[in-house]
Amino acid sequence: MTRDEAEELLKRHVTNERMLAHCWAAEAVLRALARRLGRDEERWGLAGLLHDIDIEAVGGDLSRHGIEAERILTAAGIDPEIVDAVKMHNERVCAATRCTEFQHALAAGETITGMIVATALVYPDKKIASVKVKSITKRMKEKAFAASVNRDTIRECEALGLSLEEFVEISLGAMQGVAGRLGL
User: Fold this and answer.
1) Measured in whole angstroms, how far is the alpha carbon of residue 152 from the centre of its chain?
2) Which of 14, 19, 88, 146 could bond 103 through an S-S bridge, CB–CB 3.0 to 4.6 Å?
3) Do residues 172 and 116 lie in contact, with contact meaning Cβ atoms separated by under 8 Å?
4) Which domains occur in the chain, in start order?
5) CA atoms of 166 and 23, how far apart (whole Å)
């Protein structure tokens, strides 16, 4: 499946603009991680783009999120490794724990987008371009800030051989590259 076909599939299932922006941000981060780690950028990018394809279908119910995505993506003929990573990004619905590099990358990569957006939104201009790596790593320590963002999931970047600082730098740079599309 091409990237454009994947985006068409996503838009058939996700209509909320903020959720679409989150998926585009996750795609950018996953592509950047793939480049840094020497992995398949297209495969990783598609996983980032499609990871929340079922969020509206399940009404935001995290106890079902991932299961419906598996069904949608399998029916669309998506690579089983992508389907697995998408399902495992919400490991609560699986009888397993994330264990592959791809699974950790998607989980950490899509989660860091929330911390980056939250940090941007407290800046006067509300622009990702203004955000600094140090601001994000500092905010990681503030449990009340973006409280719904799971810091432990973000720290799975270490399973990729990346320090938190390097992971944030890669992720922030990727999101800055698509800031216009994200509206930030």
Assistant:
1) 14
2) 88
3) yes
4) 3-179 (1.10.3210)
5) 21
Instruction: For residue 37, give both structure tokens.
Output: 């780690």
CB-based contact 103:89 (threshold 8 Å): yes
142, with CB counted inside 10 A (0-12, 13-18, 19+), is exposed
Dmax of the chain from CA atoms? 45
Q: At what angle do helices 80-88 and 67-75 cross, to 10 degrees?
A: 160
Q: What is the pLDDT of residues 97-145, one digit of tens each?
A: 999 999 999 999 999 999 999 999 999 999 999 999 999 999 999 999 9
pTM score over 0.85? yes
Could you tell me which of 22, 43, 170 has the C-alpha nearest to residue 110? 22
Length of the chain: 184
